[in-house]
Design goal:
alpha/beta; Rossmann fold; seven-stranded mixed beta sheet; 7 helices; 37% helix; globular; binds glycinamide ribonucleotide; GART_AS
């Protein structure tokens, strides 16, 4: 069994899709869900799939506590699924090429500090972009700058509000993220 470890900050609809996708797998499993907020909706979703959880503080993320906890689960892949804090360098260097993130826009546009969730969708609408999309990428020490693994665009016809854009982008995330994770895990064997 290869272990997937998920980090999330909020509702966790992506985390839920990933847990659902791998719940039937004989080769891969979501072994741990970590959240930096005890009210994060993702925690109840993890419990529904019998996945252990850990809630941590920003200090614990940055002082080695979270790294030690993650190491105990021997992850083949660490997945940031709606995780909004800066990811610490010690975990990135402990798992080279094994930490990935999903971003709700077509990077390199609309990335960087402060560009997350609705802020991204609002900026895309304000610029009157005809399309948006998703980017799955490796995580490095700079926000949203790691090598791109997968992108998919979607036309924004009929989108009047940031919430309209979010719905289209989330649907794309749910459709592609679990499959891309599975492909990355399978490629590790080649
Ligand atoms: C997703 O759209 C994800 O791309 C975004 O937060 C949302 C989380 O939704 N992530 C970022 O903005 C990271 N910079 P979810 O909690 O329902 O999966």
């Amino acid at each position: 069994m290869k272990n997937i470890v998920l980090f999330a900050s909020g509702g966790g609809s992506n985390a839920e899709q990933i847990m659902r996708y791998f719940s039937q797998s004989k080769t891969h499993k979501v072994a741990l869900v970590l959240a930096n907020n005890q009210n994060a909706g993702v925690l109840a979703k993890a419990e529904a799939y019998n996945v252990p959880t850990l809630v941590f503080t920003k200090d614990e993320l940055n002082n080695g506590f979270v790294l030690r906890h993650v190491q105990a689960f021997n992850p083949a892949l660490i997945v940031l699924a709606g995780f909004l804090l800066k990811f610490p360098a010690d975990i990135i260097s402990a798992y080279p090429g094994r930490v990935i993130n999903i971003h709700p826009a077509l990077l390199p546009n609309y990335g960087g500090k402060g560009m997350y969730g609705m802020h991204v969708h609002r900026a895309v609408l304000e610029n009157k972009d005809p399309e948006s999309g998703i980017t799955i990428h490796y995580v490095n020490d700079n926000y949203d700058e790691g090598n791109i693994i997968f992108q998919q665009s979607v036309p924004l016809d009929g989108c009047l509000t940031p919430e309209d854009v979010a719905l289209k982008v989330l649907a794309l995330e749910h459709e592609h993220f679990p499959r891309v994770i599975e492909e990355l895990l399978n490629e590790q064997d080649n």
